[in-house]
UniProtKB/TrEMBL annotation:
GO MF terms held by the record: hydrolase activity
Record-given protein name: 8-oxo-dGTP pyrophosphatase MutT (NUDIX family)
Transmembrane segments: none
Domain of life: Bacteria
Pfam families from the UniProt entry: NUDIX
GO biological process, one term: ribose phosphate metabolic process
Amino acid sequence: MSKPWTVDRSDIVISDRWIHLRSERVTTGRGAVLDPYYVISYPDWAVCIALTEDDRLVMVRQYRHGTASIAPELPGGCVDPHDPSPAEAAARELMEETGYGGGELVHVGSMAANPALQTNRIQIALMTGARRLAEPQLEPGEELSVELVPLEEALSLAVSGGMEQSMHVAALFAAVAALGRLKLLPPDSL
């Protein structure tokens, strides 16, 4: 059975407003020493699954430098310290990136972004009845287009690889399950 690791040493490699990287010497539960072992701390991320009255998903398409690709994804970004809640952070990001909002908002849950190396979580919010309220207010690094995609088509993109951001795929399915529109097997039947 797995046991927690102990941290023997921890050194900050870089720390700025976007990333905090530590190099650690750790001892695993079985006694192996890993040196260095890197841990990345980011703020929590929030993503909004926003559905319009006619069952279309509000998506964005933008360039992602890490993979040098342009693909559809969900509106989202960092949870800021001044955000009243993770769901409100997701709604703020939705409004900033797309100009959509005004619907019924619920927090669906959270998932670890990458528990092997990262400390943050992705916070998942669902908005139903979203509508266009304003023009997007993009940050300097954001160049994106807004797309309204029928939910069934978005789910097809998610399973076909057309939606590349894996955390967004997981968030989308969690939100669809929260809506009661995804048939899940009981855990004891697996």
